[in-house]
Amino acid sequence: MNDLAVRELRILVAVDRARSFTAAAGALGLTQSAVSHAVSACERKIGAVLFDRGRHGARPTPAGERAAAHARRILRLLDALPDEARGASTKVLTGPLRIAAFRSAAVHLLPTALTRLAAVHPGLAPEVRIVPEIGPGTAGEVRAGRADLGIATLSGNHPLPDDVVAGELFEERYSLVHPAGHPDPRTLPLIDWAENCSSYAREWWALQDWLPAARLDAGEDSVVLSMVARGMGMAIMPRLAVLDAPATVTVADLGPDRPTRSVGYVTTPELARTLGVRALIRELRGAALASASA
Fold first, then answer.
1. How many separate helices (H) and strands (E) can be counted in the chain?
2. Are residues 165 and 123 part of one domain?
3. What number is the average pLDDT over the span 130-154?
4. Do 83 and 276 form a contact (C-beta atoms < 8 A)?
5. Which CA distances in Å does 186 have to 76, 176, 209, 235?
6. pTM of the model
7. Beta partners for 251?
């Protein structure tokens, strides 16, 4: 039999996280030799080298990265099995619910959804991590098995992985954001950050000859707002990011051709059927409707 044992899956995940056989052994309460033998057994069963060993520790190979991702997803389902079974019987949902979200969604969308979720299912324990929507972003966290659900931007230059499922929550418009009272804000320097609309509305961005080539990189959207408020420049920002705009900032409509981006949820096909994730999606839809009408 070449089936991987649950113990072996947990060891794979621990080594991938720690990047070290010795550190993984310490975290699991095993000897370094036991961890090394288990990884070798996994490699023999899978038929691929999973970790590069050396003085640097243990770095996952491409095969190791995928094996660890699948292992995390399998272990998550195994860990969720008792809560799911009890929930199907009692209708009382319990257990952890791991959520990855980009900053503005975590600030303005999640609190409403999680408050409503807690009122109906107080036994669920959400665990929220802020993940920048750069590269793999929140969808990558879901695919790698580190999150049950991600709040993600569904439009952009990085297509979603084939092995996740997604649903749109709302379409988010962009606005011109500038210091209040400025006579000609379009003459100001452009303040941008890596997650912003040059990633999601590239065609619109390229057609705007009034946008200056020289830009200030602010790192994240909350810093952009602070810099605009102090008169350092103007910015093109999505709706969620400007809900905290102070009175010293003006949020101006960009007109009918303004760019937009789609915001939604991402999960795996197997977790999409779990009771906790389904309940969270329902509350996210309700929070999205409330946010759109605000």
1. 10, 11
2. yes
3. 93
4. yes
5. 50, 9, 11, 9
6. 0.88
7. 177
